[in-house]
Amino acid sequence: MLNHVEVLLVEDNVHDAEMTIRALKKVNLANNLVHVKDGEEALEFIYARGRFADRPSGHLPKVILLDIKMPKVDGIEVLKQLKAGEISKSIPVVIMTSSKEEQDIISSYELGVNSYVVKPVDFEGFARAVSQLGMYWLLTNQAPLAQKKE
């Protein structure tokens, strides 16, 4: 499973993670999804360290859905490290957060985020937004060949 991850979901809120996974399952896009609960786990996953040291490092997700407000390592720091890393800089990162703070939006785009989405409050809106994101980043978007090492 860890060899063919398409979506890395980085979300500390269990309820939001479950809603995201349910919305992606609804459109058959959650088969190759890994959920990690904080930024530290996300970096360990991408760089095949710590808990994920046995994971082949050449197999990168097609997209990372990243929350901002998380324990240990926040989403802005994760984004900063991902976009600075040679193997991870081309992975599309979508910030999915409840934060509408202008500074979070500005910082995210300055660091190279591919999209910034404020989570809709109601389930229908949330499910629709996640489904659309999944369809775009997994089916429509054309990733560089170097990222397609699967």
Classified by CATH, the class is: Alpha Beta
Give the strand tally.
5
How many distinct helices?
Answer: 5
Cα gyration radius (Å):
14 Å
Mean of the pLDDT scores?
A: 87
What's the layout of helices and strands?
Blueprint: E1 7-10, H1 14-26, E2 33-36, H2 39-46, E3 63-66, H3 75-84, E4 93-97, H4 102-110, E5 115-118, H5 123-140
Parallel strand pairs: 1-2, 1-3, 3-4, 4-5
Helix pairs in contact: 1-5, 2-3
Task: Characterize the structure shown.
The chain is an alpha/beta fold and 150 residues long. The chain has a single domain, classed as Response regulator (Rossmann fold), CATH 3.40.50. 39% of the residues lie in helices and 14% in strands. The protein has five helices and five strands. The chain has a five-stranded parallel beta sheet, sandwiched between helices. Strand 3, helix 3 (75-84) and strand 4 form a beta-alpha-beta unit. The longest helix has 18 residues, at 123-140.
